[in-house]
Amino acid sequence: MNANTPSSTASGAISGAIGVDVCIVGAGPVGATLACRLAAAGLQVAIIDRAALPPMEHPAFDGRAYAIAAGSRRLLEEAGVWQRLPMESCDIREIRVTDGRPGRPPSRLFLEFGPDDADQPFGAMIEARALRVALNASLYATPGVHVFAPDEGTVTRRPEGAEIRTASGRVIHARLVVAAEGRRSPLREQARIAVTRLPYNQCGIVCAVAHERPHGGRALEHFLPAGPFAQLPMAGTAEYPNLSALVWTEGEKVAHRLAELPHEAFAHEIRRRMGDEWLGAVTPVGQRWVYPLSAQYAQRYTDVRLALVGDAAHGIHPIAGQGLNLGFRDVIAMADILMDVHARGGDVGAPDVLRAYQARCRPANMLMLAATDALERLFGNDNPVLRLARDVGLAAVNRITPLRRSFARHAMGL
Question: How far apart (Å, rounded) are the C-alpha atoms in residues 310 and 357?
Fold first, then answer.
């Protein structure tokens, strides 16, 4: 039976045991990308998810999209995922950062990143459904990936290795188990790794809009008293040739009330925040999504034969659009370390390997969490003194070319 085909994950008892280098629990974007990247480098990988993978592929446009930083795009290319995207991505070539209030023109003091600040696009926008289709295709097509979905595993970790017994009857022996199950990671709880949570009492509204004029690859981050409002350029469709994704932050009650407004009233609220000076008239399309916002961080990323990645290790405010990209940075770091150990014939789950992973990722992730938290507190208010200070700060960074380019490269993950 080919472990790379959907038939290998059919329900019912499946006898036998397999040995792998790494077993990943969770087939979301971070876990699935890690599996493909490691297998592309010659490691044997098992990946388990409670959900069947094909039903994750939403057939219709639903308004959700990912902003993929340049460094994350390189990772997806190396993992063989980017090449399997079933629809076009849209390069982000300019980013304008402004400050203001709903219904009023933005401050004349702004920060803008353009082609002179990087030798490549800052990132790319892809539909969420497109990434899911590409990930599923890559998991089943990459030699060395054993997919168990829908399935669940009971994990036993010992110093000499890990054993995973699946509900379908398979036994998996692994040198390392990776928890990629998201913010409520059962494996993290099993390892008694403490988590610190920072509630924001906010929600993010996610949707898409068709607009009158082309966006030209420009993204907007508009800071408002209730939180940031982001417009992100997307590739057009036959029905909507000019299309953008929107992500904006409001208080919990206001966010739900806005998301439930009738079509014209909802469009009016969008125009009050985005204006129509350069995109023209806007029309909401697709579904509207509301997500609660919070930050959290694990006190450590590792335990015996266990490593945390992505949201299992950290979650940040979406103010800078770095949430998924931060998870992809974990994947880049882990892949670099494990591929090197594997090439030398070493043990990919050894304590020194896990220490190296935590030392490389956790300090940088904590800095990003602190930065996004500070940005939210600095920009998410209407204090006139702070408004003046942040506007002057944006304008100052805009004028200092080396600093502006340094910020751009960091956001790109390069």
Answer: 13
CA-based torsion, 102, 108, 110, 113: positive or negative = positive
Q: What is the sign of the dihedral through the CA atoms of 321, 323, 328 and 330?
A: positive
CATH number of the domain residue 267 falls in: 3.30.9.10
pTM equals: 0.90
DSSP result, 250-285: EEHHHHHHHHTS-HHHHHHHHHHHH-STTT-SEEEE
What ranges make up the beta strands (E) of 5-133? 17-25, 45-48, 65-69, 90-92, 94-99, 111-113, 123-127
Same domain, 320 and 344: yes
Alpha-carbon span 303 to 176, nearest angstrom: 10
Residue 344 and residue 300 share a domain: yes
Buried b / exposed e along 387-401 (16+ C-beta atoms within 10 A): beebbeebeebbeee
- Is 396 strand, coil or helix? helix
- Name the residue with tokens 């539909």: 127
pLDDT, tens only, 182-239: 999 999 999 999 999 988 889 999 999 999 999 999 999 888 888 889 999 999 988 9
- Number of domains composing the chain: 2
User: Which residues form the domain of 327?
Assistant: 6-60+130-197+296-374
